[in-house]
Amino acid sequence: MQLDKAPFSFNSFLRSRKRRELNIWNKKENQDEMSVLEPKSRRVFDLQKKDAVHISLKYAPFFIAFWAVLYLSIVRTQVDRLPKPLYRVDEHSNPESFIAERAEITLINLTSIGPRVVGSVANEVKALKFLLNEIEKIQMESSDYFKFDVDIQEATGNYVHWSMINMYQSIQNVIVKLSAKNSSSGNYVLINSHYDTVPSSPGAGDDGSMVAIMLEVMRVICKSKGPLEHPIVFLFNGAEENPLQASHAFITQHKWAKNCKALINLDAAGNGGREILFQSGPQHSWLMKYYRQVPHPFATCSAEEIFQAGLIPSDTDFRIFRDFGGVPGYDMAFVTNGYVYHTEHDKINVMPKGSLQHTGDNVLTLAKCLGNAQELNDIVQHSDGHVVFFDFLGNFIIFYTENVGIIINIIVCVIAIIAIGISLYVMAADSAISLKSIFSRFGASFAVQVAALAVGGGLALLNALFMDAIGSAMSWYSQKWMFAGLYFCPLFFGMGMLPACYLEKSRKDRLFLGFRIQLLMHSHCLFLVAVTIVLTYFRIRSAYLLMMAVLFYALALIINLTAKCYRSVYRFGLIMVICQILPFLYYTSLTHIIYDAMVPMAGRSSSSSNPEIFMCGIAIFVTILFAGFIIPLLLFFRKARVLFSAFLIVALIFIIIASTPLGFPYRAKTAAQRYALIHAHRIIHDADKTTRVEESGIYVFPQDRNVKILDENTKSIGQKHMVSDYCAKEMFCGMPFYNHRWYKARDFSFWIPIEEDPYIPGEAPRLVLLSSNQLVDPFQINYEFELSGPDHMTIFIDLTDQGRIVNWSLNETMLTENWQSPYFIYFSWGKTGTALKFTIIVEKTLETFDKPILEIGIGGHWTHAQKIRPKKYQEFVNSLPDYSTLTDWVATYESWIF
């Protein structure tokens, strides 16, 4: 017998499948959840299951590509955007505009002098003459509205800088006061940049570019007819690299210093790009009111907090003006192309005209604004606290006071918590389950989300440790795209795979897929709320970054709740995507900026720390912000675990690339590896005046993590010894440390004894004991010394036995604050080098009264002399790879016990 087949009905199949699933769920739920009316339950579940369909995996690449296109088409173009430079032919139609071509010509002429090291003829004579000639030309073009006062400061002084005394003698500043002839204001605006450079560098970016910009700004203002209520002081600083000596000389000694009420400090940690405002104030939010008027804003208080936390291996004159003069203002600097910073590659040919135009337009605007700012009449009255500030893709600036920021953070967090609470209530009502049950699920989702963040971050950190352990650190140094695979892909994998597995395991849950994914997103928002509150409590202004993520998610959630789109996968996802576009653009632009600045800095941060961990930490932080609400949207796609596994595969591929020659970090000129070498001769005397140590060698100060690359080259000249091996026996290791940073890197620096003595281009440092007299106190002896030598010297002071230094003629801070010996003094002179006389009063004990216990070591450094290298050392220098850049000079070290 043959049966007739009934026609197949797809709708009937779906209805029967829903009935089966509904029966399974009804059996599974607790009794309290079954008390809901059956008709309503059936209607709700039918609606939920209708919208619980996964999206096909084939659309996932398009979803990911959408965000990639946003980054490439908007972020990359906006972040790297520079204004069109103006040329001299444009001056007629732009009479009061900054002309980039003029600034470029000035910069060419300045850098043609060559490296301008403090104490050199180039810095103390040629650069100074150049500046005076340029100022004279500007003065001749000036309108009758203005008057000029030009002064050359020559100063001597000292102060404590980090962990050393910083002493200077006869350093020079060129200072111009520009004022309206009818002005009676005693409140000045100070604009500062420095014309000196580090050894071997022509200093086009640091800081010749800013000197040229200041001269052009001065010229443009002078040709106008005002108005200018307050005088502007242009400080051309002659000793910043020493470090920060000339700014200290001006703010503590110059006749115009006390009148300076606002500051524009201009510096560079790179060459080109846009200058970033990375410090403002402090305590003066009104400054941002004027910065808002600049045509090309680029600023963030996060950079300020990073800088002030000491995470950047640099400092600027801003700190000197702030700490010693109480002058509020702006600290602005180039940070792009930091690869050439402080190297011979910092040349004019890599400085775009657009960068000069960008900074020139901004500085000109700020100079005019501050020159007419009423706040300068009483800046104390306008001191209203720190400020939160940031720009959006260089288009506009947002700022508010720190106290307002605290209120905003709290309000946004409260709104987000309320919105999440309402969403949970709606989920319970629409799913016909109790609030207790929904909160239980929310708790589980929160645990899963936090665990996912931990897994993603843990995988990225594990990779950072692994890359360093296998000797493949900094593979991203010249190819920043490596970050995508090395750190971001492991993060995406960890942040997505664990939730995907959780959803798969709970696929029979009565709560439909859309709601379960929303619970994960709510959990991420709650996590951000918690961190925001903690950062706000500690008054960390960068909390605004997390607040913004919470704000836009809360906005999307409110829209979904109001429009009842939370029931539909597609409408819910669309609203979430739309509301994530702006924060995604901001966070990825910030990521681009941070890596653009920080990656080159890894090449000069010494080898004491693993840069992989720092760069990985940045990736973790920004990924939580820009991808925390995007990764969960990928869970709507079918086979999400396959999708997240692809991220892991990409990460493995990048790890392989990084560990091969393809991941080699350096490139000649554009991303060179830095080497700092000193060919030194050192002599150490015992208390009986006999010579205990006398040898020559090469001191190697490591600049980055990959210092072992140099091992094969060093074998050709001698055996390498770690500098720290000498520290237990000798004061300051018996080495000619150039400054305190060299001493801090002693555990990773090395000394290579060689037979060739360095060619000393002048008189070696000479320390003479003029007298040693017993004071009224029978155990106190006053030692008087005289020191002469090159324009860069270091003085090391310690006691070899019981006793203490009770006073000296040097800066007294170390003694009054009971600093532990030994003491580090950096001493340099500029125009002239008269002998330095100083006294030290030592209090001895009965046991040590007849013993020499005062030890003094003197390091002499010839940082700008013509290099004459002995044959073997020259061969070693020639053997360095072409991807290296070298800074070297000769030095001496000699110590005595008195």
UniProtKB/TrEMBL annotation:
The biological processes this protein is annotated with in GO are: proteolysis
Give the chief site where it resides: endoplasmic reticulum
Task: Report the superkingdom from the record.
Answer: Eukaryota
Question: Any stretches that span the bilayer, and where are they?
Answer: 52-74, 406-426, 438-461, 481-503, 515-538, 544-562, 574-594, 614-635, 642-664
Domain Endoplasmic reticulum metallopeptidase 1-like C-terminal, by residue range, is: 670-896
Where the record annotates domain Peptidase M28, the positions are 173-366
Q: Does the keyword Metal-binding apply?
A: yes
Q: Name one GO cellular component term.
A: endoplasmic reticulum membrane
The cofactors it requires, by name, are: Zn(2+)
Q: Which family does it belong to?
A: Belongs to the peptidase M28 family.
Protein name per its UniProtKB record? FXNA-like protease
Q: Name the species this protein comes from.
A: Glossina austeni
